[in-house]
TrEMBL record:
<dbReference type="InterPro" id="IPR050680">
    <property type="entry name" value="YpeA/RimI_acetyltransf"/>
</dbReference>
<dbReference type="InterPro" id="IPR000182">
    <property type="entry name" value="GNAT_dom"/>
</dbReference>
<comment type="function">
    <text>Acetylates the N-terminal alanine of ribosomal protein bS18.</text>
</comment>
<keyword id="KW-0012">Acyltransferase</keyword>
<protein>
    <recommendedName>
        <fullName>[Ribosomal protein bS18]-alanine N-acetyltransferase</fullName>
        <ecNumber>2.3.1.266</ecNumber>
    </recommendedName>
</protein>
<feature type="domain" description="N-acetyltransferase">
    <location>
        <begin position="1"/>
        <end position="147"/>
    </location>
</feature>
<dbReference type="GO" id="GO:0005737">
    <property type="term" value="C:cytoplasm"/>
</dbReference>
<comment type="similarity">
    <text>Belongs to the acetyltransferase family. RimI subfamily.</text>
</comment>
<keyword id="KW-0963">Cytoplasm</keyword>
<keyword id="KW-0808">Transferase</keyword>
<dbReference type="InterPro" id="IPR016181">
    <property type="entry name" value="Acyl_CoA_acyltransferase"/>
</dbReference>
<dbReference type="InterPro" id="IPR006464">
    <property type="entry name" value="AcTrfase_RimI/Ard1"/>
</dbReference>
<dbReference type="GO" id="GO:0008999">
    <property type="term" value="F:protein-N-terminal-alanine acetyltransferase activity"/>
</dbReference>
<dbReference type="Pfam" id="PF00583">
    <property type="entry name" value="Acetyltransf_1"/>
</dbReference>
Length: 147
């Protein structure tokens, strides 16, 4: 089941992100839950919060700010369902495009976005610190979907 999350779900959301590691900071999660221009959607399995996504409304576009699924629940279609909900939300807002950025090494997430119709618009060279345990920096891929 997918439902909208509210500030009352903050503790559950922090615990989920600590395991999913989508890159959202604790402050980003708190801000998103309290922002009327942002929707936080959660996926539930038997009362356990198994995944979430954050989408923000911008003046013309919308932006996927985070998406994460519990490692034990990945590969079951939860990411696809959450992204479908995010796309529906952007369409409801009449956003022109849904934007996102993703680490160039995050092949699983990139596959999910391509499957849902996103395409690559460009790259920010060396945008992210390299993954833990590796040196240097990593590119961000900029992707978008026309709503
Ligand atoms: C990226 C992420 C959100 C995807 O979530 P997910 O729930 O695993 O995604 P899905 O299950 O919808 O799809 C993933 C794979 O499972 C497959 N799948 C979907 N439903 C399935 C099912 N019922 N049975 C078997 N496989 C299935 C999909 O085809 C897809 O396969 P692929 O990776 O070979 O293309 C998740 O891996 C995650 O939380 N990663 C860590 C955080 C992160 O990187 N976030 C993105 C930051 S930009």
């Amino acid at each position: 089941m997918i439902s909208q999350l509210t500030p009352a779900h903050a503790a559950l959301l922090h615990a989920l992100e600590a395991k999913a590691n989508s890159g959202a900071s604790p402050q980003q999660l708190v801000d998103a839950l309290g922002d009327p221009n942002t929707q936080v959607v959660g996926h539930w399995q038997q009362n356990v919060l198994t995944g979430y996504a954050i989408v923000m409304r911008l003046p013309f576009d919308a932006e996927l700010q985070a998406i994460g699924v519990l490692p034990a629940c990945q590969g079951q279609g939860i990411g696809q369902q959450l992204l479908g909900e995010v796309i529906a939300c952007a369409q409801q807002w009449q956003s022109e495009r849904l934007l996102l950025e993703v680490r160039a090494s995050n092949q699983r997430a990139i596959r999910l976005y391509l499957q849902q119709g996103f395409h690559e618009d460009g790259r920010r060279r060396g945008y992210y610190p390299a993954a833990l345990g590796t040196a240097g920096r990593e590119d961000a891929l900029l992707m978008s979907l026309s709503c």
